[in-house]
Model the fold of this input.
Amino acid sequence: MADSQFSAPPMPAHAAPHPMARPGYGKRTTSGQPPRTAADFAHLPPREGAIAAYIDRLADGADISVKTLAKVLPYGQCALRTALNRIQESGHLRRGREHSAGSGSPRWITRTWWSRAPRDDTWWAAYRRGDVPEEGLRRPTRSRAVILLAALGREAPVMSLSAAECAQLAPLVEEWFARGADETQLMRALTSGLPVPVHHPAALARTRLTTKLPPERRPVPPLLRVLECGKCGAPARAEALRGGDCATCRGEPAPPARPALPPSSVRAHAAEARAAARSNERSRT
Done:
């Protein structure tokens, strides 16, 4: 029976959390993820779709190696390896290494990048370069900002804001998010030590968002990424990978070797180099 006809058994409901990889390793979600839906992996065969849905729900840093997945899912290592290769071919997964330029450390960290949306080879090549496609740059900071401002009234009723006031103040909240602040920090800044009474909650929120704005974060050093073949693990140019596999693993013939220069040409080039060196020496003296 073909693999695509396998019916995927239900994923186990674990009492214990999924094992995490060593710090800095494991699953790494790419930017620009769409909202999760029930049809995210419907284009995959049942088994692959079930495994992909399970991985997608895991937190970043989770250990998604074949050996660990075999301990928690109802599949053997061989079946999981095949399934992960098919998930990779569909554009959800890439393997490689990453290095933080300017960090002072020579280490390259093994990465397993994950995308809920299936990405083609061109997108992954751009991601490897750090040239994230436009859709990957969209950040949901505005919706986060409006949600937080609308929740002020539940935390401190005297700070209740209208929809129009939330929209006006949202850019200031977005700047806090851009500087690394989280919802807890923002809520504390906007609700602690309130005067009694609060006459103009929107004006007070604007003042606090402006005067308490945290400093800008230090620039993050650029990341250098190398993609690897999903089957043999050999480093490869992203443009040379098809579905995550290198040309050798795809069974394509190696490009013909460039013919070597004949000895006469080598001697001629060497003579030209020596003549140029003598000419430069005479001009200096």
